[in-house]
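Summary of Year 1 activities. Much of the first year was spent building the evaluation harness for sequence design. The harness presents a backbone, in tokenized form, and records the residue chosen at every position. We chose the following record to illustrate the format because it has been used consistently in internal testing since the harness was completed.
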């Protein structure tokens, strides 16, 4: 799908995030400016503790900045009510975590179907969409398996199918390859590229794995709560 990338799709303006911990203030993000373009693969790289997860949580509306703004489609996330944010999180954003977050008693198919149910997608579309997503991640043959019957890489691929099934505009992934060997990590990134190209979904992920950065359209490097290069 040929697309014009929209730089203002998701914008971060002078964002700070501090926490109170052990009686003192910890300034984790210290003035972040960046944008996540639509229909592209963006990576946040940086050492452990540099603030990648904290930033990703802000991008997905899971947390609020102490100062500054996160604008999703030109509107600051803090201007949305909690109710509106819940709708955005459920319908427009998909989340992929390091630890797959699948329901253990449901099969791969049922796990993916559940996200369509949660997003309020019409039941008539479920079958075709679940089949399409499992095909995209190469798991058609494993569709009736439960998570415990799948390898770590397969579970992560189900988690990806689940996160994208409801056609979010943005997929956020926190260290999605951290638990996987290098071959499976490369496979996951190839799937991300397919999703970006075929579905036009923007993906923003964190990783400290330098072998993966080359596959990104945009890479931001974080050091001590700041972005140092692009
Ligand atoms: N709720 C919190 N309260 C206090 N400190 C926090 C909180 N959340 C994060 N931090 C601190 O902020 C820093 C950055 O954490 P963050 O998880 O964003 O880093 P990261 O770059 O994602 O690291 P990793 O690669 O290890 O996941 C860490 O020093 C962490 O201890």
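For this record, the design step produced the sequence shown next.
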């Amino acid at each position: 799908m040929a697309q014009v990338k929209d730089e203002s799709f998701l914008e971060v303006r002078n964002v700070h995030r501090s926490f109170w911990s052990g009686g003192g203030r910890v300034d984790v993000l210290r003035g972040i400016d960046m944008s996540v373009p639509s229909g592209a693969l963006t990576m946040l790289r940086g050492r452990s503790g540099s603030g990648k997860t904290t930033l990703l949580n802000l991008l997905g509306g899971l947390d609020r900045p102490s100062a500054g703004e996160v604008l999703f489609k030109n509107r600051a996330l803090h201007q949305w009510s909690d109710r509106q944010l819940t709708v955005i999180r459920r319908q427009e954003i998909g989340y992929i975590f390091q630890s797959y977050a699948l329901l253990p008693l449901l099969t791969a198919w049922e796990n993916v179907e559940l996200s369509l149910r949660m997003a309020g997608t019409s039941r008539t579309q479920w079958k075709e969409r679940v089949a399409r997503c499992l095909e995209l991640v190469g798991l058609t043959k494993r569709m009736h398996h439960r998570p415990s019957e799948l390898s770590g890489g397969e579970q992560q691929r189900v988690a990806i199918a689940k996160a994208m099934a409801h056609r979010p505009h943005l997929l956020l992934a926190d260290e999605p390859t951290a638990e996987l060997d290098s071959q499976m990590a490369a496979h996951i990134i190839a799937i991300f590229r397919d999703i970006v190209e075929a579905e036009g979904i923007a993906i923003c992920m964190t990783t400290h794995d330098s072998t993966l950065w080359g596959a990104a359209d945009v890479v931001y490097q974080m050091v001590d709560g700041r972005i140092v290069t692009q």
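DSSP finds six helices and ten strands in the chain. Quantitative recovery figures across the full test set are reported in Table 2.
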